[in-house]
């Protein structure tokens, strides 16, 4: 019994928690307790797995005792263990934030009580996708998390959410179908769906067929990871969901797609056959995404565009297929999950404090709430890649890897990455100048909440809001705490974790470097699943 | 590997009809398109399993080649269950869309329409009370597609409702 044998629990515990919270649907506080403690327990187990991962190496757990390649295996290596820990930290933080929002608004009754079970199922799906060593099981993991995300996306069933949900569901189902078609064709070509077995057998397949299968998988995962030009759906659908849901989607769901792309590139189809193609895609993703963000005034949409843009960095590192590039990609994924989620959580706070997420209707937030100013400023600068934040370190690694490769296309990408970083800084500075720095009186059409609170401290009563045309979601409530500690607390924690990525950059980069070496070598993975001597 | 031509033709027909329906604006047709394409994928997996054979129950003396490959059927079964879940969710969503808007159609993104409406970036905020945020009420009741034709009427109505 070693620590990596705990892997099935990372999927099973959230599912069990989902069942329990579903039974407790009439008892909101019990539901909160169960879901938070389930995720905390899962996180604890995953930390144990991560700490043990460097010493035990890659380890495969055979579900039901079936020997691979016939049974499903869960594979724990340093990359998947790291991703599990990061995803659990982020999902636990967002869960506390969401629970805090529910408590302080007193809207625990009603359809929102479905949030907890669905959220836990989403976490189970994400963990499954990170762990599985079986292509069809990866499809199942994707479907678990996508089906949960459909419910979370349309939570409450308001008209804008249904509109956005329709696009999201149809696009996701089509991408899943492409994935399933690819699985069917891969099975036809090789007769197996076990990823380690595939890695061995795909080498014997005709190169043209290999290319078709490779590209089909990449397109399917590219839609999920929101890689340009397959990213069109993301800025349309994410912003309408509730703030915590958008935060966890932005942090985790696209990264599951990136994770799957990394596995495809390193394990199933190693080599540099389509690397130049991936580099062009990465460049376009970075530039087009950030230009989209420049044109937005709604903070949630703007952040969705920066999310798309920064997926380009991960594809960039992946396309270099060097040890340094891959290590920087893994580091960047960890950094981006943390930072993007904290920015969306802060946006949720901004929306509460200012009544809207439209930057043109916000102002003076830095004076009205200095805490909010700091909470936005730190991750925003981190995202833009200002030293000494983790965004800078991740980008530096990618740039070094690009220069190391030294081809004209790689150097063009380096230039594109620097430009994107500067444009991100511009975008964030514009948001800062408008929403945080200018005085609230200069705002043309401010939400009543923004100005009402300016003279009245942090607590606002409904009577102060009836003068405007839009009383927002607080209409009819007696009093509401705009920035409750239950919501700021998790946000502060996640922003601090983002800073911690700088302090821990040394050990973390050693870890990602080892993970990258392991993935590029492939032998540890193949031997863990298929037994020693299985390679070639 | 043997390939069954009937299955391939059937699959092609499912995909063609499914794709055609998927590109429609009516949500019910989109759903039918997804169901057809989902079944097309199932047939594809079946076709990939090779020729037919005896039931995959072990009996002494039967050579391995005579058994049918059972794994693709297990994959199809899983895919059917997943398609079922997604289909029922989409039905619920389509019904909800109809209840809210009396429209069985893919709705336009208000932000896209807003971008279409504005001549230059500076005047873009006149409609900002009707953006995609959850705080909007005024813009929701009427069909969004008409806004492009009569932006002035839309703005007037918002102003009229304010007091």
Highlighted features:
heterodimer, A: 536 residues, mainly alpha, two-stranded antiparallel sheet, 21 helices, 4 strands, B: 163 residues, Helix Hairpins, disordered C terminus
**Share of residues in helices of chain B:** 55-70%
Number of beta strands of chain B: 0
- The averaged pLDDT of chain B comes out at 74
The largest pleated sheet of chain B is described as: none
What is the level 1 CATH name of the largest domain in chain B?
A: Mainly Alpha
- Count every helix of chain A, treating DSSP H or I runs of 4 or more residues as helices: 21
The low-confidence runs of chain A, each spanning 5 or more residues with pLDDT under 50, are 457-471
- Beta-strand portion of chain B reads under 5%
CATH fold type of the largest domain in chain B: Helix Hairpins
- Rg of chain A to the nearest angstrom? 23 Å
Structure characterization notes:
The complex is a heterodimer of chains A (536) and B (163). With 536 residues, chain A is an all-alpha fold. Chain A has a domain at 271-503. Chain A is built from 21 helices and four strands. Chain A has a two-stranded antiparallel ribbon. Chain A has a two-stranded antiparallel sheet with strand order 3-4. Residues 457-471 of chain A have low confidence and may be disordered. Chain B has 163 residues and is mostly helical. Chain B folds into two domains: 5-53 and 68-101, Helix Hairpins (Orthogonal Bundle), CATH 1.10.287; 110-161, no CATH class. Helices cover 55% and strands 0% of the residues of chain B. Chain B has helices at 5-22, 27-48, 71-101, 110-117, 151-161. In chain B, helix 1 runs antiparallel to helix 2. Chains A and B meet through helix 5 and helix 6 of A and helix 2, helix 3 and helix 4 of B.
């Amino acid at each position: 019994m070693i620590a990596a044998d705990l892997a099935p629990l990372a999927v099973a515990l959230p599912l069990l928690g989902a069942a329990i919270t579903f039974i407790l649907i009439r008892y909101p506080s019990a539901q909160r307790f169960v879901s938070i403690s389930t995720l905390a327990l899962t996180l604890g187990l995953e930390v144990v797995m991560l700490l043990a991962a460097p010493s035990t190496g890659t380890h495969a757990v055979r579900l039901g005792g079936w020997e691979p390649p016939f049974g499903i295996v869960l594979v724990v290596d340093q990359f998947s263990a790291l991703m599990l820990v990061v995803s659990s930290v982020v999902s636990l933080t967002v869960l506390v934030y969401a629970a805090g929002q529910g408590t302080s608004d007193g809207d625990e009754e009603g359809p929102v009580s479905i949030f907890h079970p669905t959220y836990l199922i989403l976490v189970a799906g994400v963990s499954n996708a990170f762990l599985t060593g079986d292509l069809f099981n990866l499809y199942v993991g994707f479907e678990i998390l996508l089906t949960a995300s459909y419910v979370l996306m349309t939570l409450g069933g308001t008209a804008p959410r249904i509109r956005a949900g329709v696009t999201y569901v149809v696009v996701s189902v089509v991408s899943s179908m492409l994935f399933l078609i690819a699985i069917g064709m891969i099975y036809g070509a090789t007769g197996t769906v076990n990823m380690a077995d595939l890695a061995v057998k795909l080498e014997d397949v005709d190169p043209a067929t290999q290319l078709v299968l490779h590209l089909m998988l990449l397109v399917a995962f590219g839609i999920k990871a929101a890689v340009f030009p397959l990213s069109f759906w993301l800025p349309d659908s994410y912003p309408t969901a509730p703030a915590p849901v958008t935060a966890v989607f932005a942090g985790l769901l696209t990264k599951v797609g990136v994770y799957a792309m990394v596995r495809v590139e390193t394990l199933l189809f190693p080599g540099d056959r389509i690397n130049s193609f991936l580099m062009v895609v990465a460049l376009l993703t970075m530039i087009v995404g950030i230009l989209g963000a420049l044109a937005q005034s709604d903070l949630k949409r703007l952040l969705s565009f920066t999310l798309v843009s920064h997926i380009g960095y991960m594809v960039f590192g992946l396309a270099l297929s060097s040890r340094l590039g891959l290590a920087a990609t893994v580091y960047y994924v960890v950094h981006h999950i943390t930072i993007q989620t904290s920015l969306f959580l802060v946006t949720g706070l901004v929306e509460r404090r200012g009544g809207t997420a439209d930057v043109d209707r916000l102002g003076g937030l830095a004076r009205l709430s200095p805490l909010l100013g700091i909470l936005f400023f730190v991750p925003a600068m981190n995202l833009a890649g200002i030293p000494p934040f983790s965004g800078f370190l991740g980008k530096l690694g990618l740039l070094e890897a690009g220069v190391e490769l030294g081809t004209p296309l790689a150097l063009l990408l380096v230039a594109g990455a620097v430009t994107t970083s500067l444009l991100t800084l511009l975008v964030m500075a514009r948001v800062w100048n408008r929403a945080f720095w200018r005085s609230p009186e200069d705002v043309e059409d401010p939400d009543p909440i923004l100005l009402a609170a300016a003279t009245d401290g942090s607590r606002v009563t409904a009577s102060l809001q009836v003068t405007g045309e839009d009383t927002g979601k607080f209409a009819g409530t007696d009093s509401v705490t705009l920035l409750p500690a239950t919501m700021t607390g998790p946000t502060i924690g996640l922003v601090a974790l983002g800073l911690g990525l700088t302090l821990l950059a040394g050990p973390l980069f050693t870890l990602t470097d080892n993970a990258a070496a392991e993935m590029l070598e492939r032998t540890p993975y193949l031997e863990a699943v298929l037994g020693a001597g299985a390679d070639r | 590997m043997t390939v069954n031509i009937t299955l391939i033709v059937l699959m092609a027909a499912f995909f063609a009809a499914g794709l055609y329906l998927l590109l429609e604006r009516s949500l019910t047709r989109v759903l039918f398109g997804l169901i057809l394409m989902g079944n097309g994928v199932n047939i594809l997996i079946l076709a990939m399993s090779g020729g037919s054979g005896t039931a995959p129950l072990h009996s002494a003396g039967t050579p391995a080649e005579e058994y049918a490959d059972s794994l693709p059927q297990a994959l199809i079964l899983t895919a059917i269950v997943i398609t079922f879940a997604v289909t029922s969710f989409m039905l619920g969503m389509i019904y909800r869309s109809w209840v809210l808007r009396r429209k069985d159609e893919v709705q336009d993104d208000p932000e896209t329409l807003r971008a279409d409406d504005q001549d230059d970036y500076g005047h873009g905020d006149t409609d900002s009370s009707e953006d995609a945020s959850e705080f909007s009420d005024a813009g929701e009741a009427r069909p969004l597609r008409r806004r492009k034709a009569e932006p002035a009427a839309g703005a007037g109505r918002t102003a009229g409702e304010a007091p």
